[in-house]
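User: Hi! I have a protein structure encoded as tokens and I'd like to know what sequence might fold into it. I'm fairly new to this, so please keep things simple.
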């Protein structure tokens, strides 16, 4: 019996969908089998995982509690400090061949320092397929947990709708002189501007911006001053502006400046981790949908794709337009960019 074209098309589509469902299920099955095996091996590792983690303690505790509910025989201990202090501590430990830490949560160029220093190992989590390439390092060197868009925040009461800045060059308008705030040592953003514009044009922009006499303030205080009307514009983290906005402050922020530069918080497996299977279980869990939702509720922007319950404002960020800033570049340029930034804007 001859089949009609539409029937043939229907059968082909059904077979195609069935095949891809089978592949997806087999992939999940492999990941589940791997976790079961790691969980068994973890039982012989002492029941504890140590994370050097920059994540806020209240958010981290929710994650540790959820992890322990999944794996009752394991508990997580967190050491948290300023990232430079954490980096100094782990470098000192590894120089002395003291291998205490299992999982590393750092950000920016610190991520590459840990790789180059032989402190971070490579691990490709089964969850990594849910992260876009920009949020993953080469060969499992790191995976981004969440990110901050570095953008233009502005006071909606002070600036009429038709005068609001839309992109970086708009900040050079003379009317903004003395009315701009900015985060100190804003080096990822600085490097992004130079990369997008080129060194010559990028530095000219920085010189012209410096003539606007921006005042350096940290992210929370800067956005508080922006809310109070002390600044009309603040160059900094968009998610901090959104937190203030959700509390009723007259603030908004640009979702798609060109370039769109982000700062990432990353997750890495420690080399010579004393509890390697427990560490891998924690990393897999930390990158999961469940934890992404916890972070989203705590005003973080998860790097994982397709997270439910994400603030609508964060869904408007054009992730595919984020300017790639390789960790190697951030590390190589750190000292030079720090010196240049401070020569333009001061040390804060």
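Assistant: Happy to help. Inverse folding works backwards from shape to sequence: for each of the 348 positions I chose a residue that suits the local structure. Here it is:
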């Amino acid at each position: 019996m001859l089949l009609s074209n539409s029937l043939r098309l229907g059968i082909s589509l059904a077979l195609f969908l069935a095949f891809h469902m089978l592949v997806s299920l087999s992939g999940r099955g492999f990941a589940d089998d791997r976790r079961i095996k790691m969980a068994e091996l973890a039982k012989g590792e002492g029941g504890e995982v140590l994370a050097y983690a920059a994540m806020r303690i209240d958010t981290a505790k929710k994650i540790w509690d959820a992890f322990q509910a999944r794996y009752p025989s394991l508990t997580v201990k967190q050491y948290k400090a300023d990232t430079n202090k954490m980096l100094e501590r782990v470098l000192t430990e590894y120089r002395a061949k003291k291998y205490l830490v299992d999982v590393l949560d750092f950000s920016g160029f610190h991520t590459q320092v840990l790789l180059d220093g032989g402190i971070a190992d490579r691990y490709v989590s089964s969850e990594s397929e849910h992260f876009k390439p920009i949020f993953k390092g080469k060969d499992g060197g790191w995976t981004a947990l969440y990110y901050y868009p570095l953008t233009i925040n502005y006071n909606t009461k002070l600036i009429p709708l038709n005068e609001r800045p839309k992109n970086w060059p708009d900040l050079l308008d003379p009317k903004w002189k003395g009315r701009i705030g900015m985060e100190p040592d804003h080096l990822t953003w600085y490097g992004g501007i130079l990369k997008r514009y080129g060194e010559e044009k990028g530095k000219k922009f920085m010189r012209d911006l410096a003539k606007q006499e921006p005042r350096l303030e940290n992210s929370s205080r800067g956005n508080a001053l922006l809310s109070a009307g002390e600044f009309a514009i603040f160059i900094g983290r968009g998610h901090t502006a959104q937190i203030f906005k959700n509390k009723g402050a007259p603030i908004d922020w640009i979702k798609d400046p060109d370039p769109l530069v982000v700062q990432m918080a990353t997750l890495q497996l420690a080399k010579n981790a004393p509890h390697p299977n427990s560490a891998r279980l924690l990393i897999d869990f930390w990158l999961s949908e469940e934890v992404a939702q916890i972070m989203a509720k705590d005003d973080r922007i998860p790097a994982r794709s397709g997270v439910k319950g994400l603030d609508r404002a964060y869904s408007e960020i054009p992730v595919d337009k984020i300017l790639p800033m390789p960790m190697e570049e951030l590390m190589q340029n750190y000292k030079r960019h720090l010196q240049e930034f401070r020569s333009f804007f001061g040390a804060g």
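A useful reference point when you look it over: The beta strands are 48-53, 75-79, 103-107, 120-121, 143-155, 180-182, 215-216, 233-237, 251-253, 261-270. Feel free to ask if any position seems puzzling.
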